[in-house]
Amino acid sequence: MKIYLAGPDVFLPDAVGIGRRKRAICAAHGLTGLYPLDNVIDLAANDASRQIFAGNEAMMDAADAIIANLTPFRGPGADAGTAYELGYMAGRGKLCLAYCNDPAIYADRVRRFGDVASNDGRLVDAHGLTVEDFGLTDNLMMIHALELHGCPLVMPTETPADIWRDLAAFETCVRMAAAR
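and the corresponding structure tokens:
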């Protein structure tokens, strides 16, 4: 089984090493991990971003499943690119698994970034926009896509000391994929 390894891990200073660790965990369970940074891209080319997009979609098309890192990235929710990749794979009927190393509820995460108040029975942010408050850890579309197209979101009971390099929840997803 080939697994596309999605997530903001590609932005870490040690992104290549994280990819190696994830691929090794997959291999230990009889799976093949496809890491986005394995694509050969000419970053100096005028169309580098298009090359990255095409390479990642080709990897997803070749994969049987996705394991997405939905740990909040640059805000209270998952990385936008990873959310796209999860939707892409769900839309193609492929097995979808994901993990998040921040077990906090989404509304609580939003509070970390600004004022949230109750207004007529709903939560609103400082701009008066409704804050999704269903007791879920991220946007309902991602959480329910996982339930319908794979397995519920995997999370630790407590936030690990290093949310970007702790791969225990990732390995749980790998085990779940291997059991399929």
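(Above: one complete record from the training split.) The two ends are 9 Å apart (CA to CA).
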